[in-house]
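Could you please consider the sequence and fold following this short note?
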Amino acid sequence: MVPPFPRPPGLRGASCIKSHIFGSGVNTINLRPRCEKGCSGEEPKDGDKCVVESGTSGYVFVVLSGVCQNMTCKVNNGSEVYKQEMNVSLDINGVDKAPIPQLPGCGFTNVQDKNRQYLLSMECTACESLLNQTKRPDCTPCIVSKNDTESGDVKLTVGECKNGTCVALSSTKTVDVNKELISNSG
């Protein structure tokens, strides 16, 4: 069961969340909050992507994805971690911090900046040292490099996966994110 998402101060009461959306355009990932008929009125189908668990750390909302099987969201080989940078800290006084979900074994982690401009894979090859190595499809947006900024944030250089390696684009694109977004803890 997914713990409830703590609401930042000043936001209205709970509303219906039809799906958690990461990315945009052809790279959009929609995750059902649970594998049951929710506020959308749609019955989940086996194989629909869903939220196994979620957690928070400072300015970061973290989701472990899975797939619906028999009305239950389960981790599978395609499970990934999605980390969304938020505009405000989610560490609210008096609210228990939700634990950070982790992938069982190895897999892919994706980060999305607070403006939802980029959804970037942190790696193009998972399980590099193992026999069951998995590569991202070519052209998957990824992080070529990370550089600290004077403000304490991190500047990410956007690239794309080519044959399991993140390579720079012909025109350089960057995005500044909170350091917490790319740390191992959040």
The chain has one domain: 20-182.
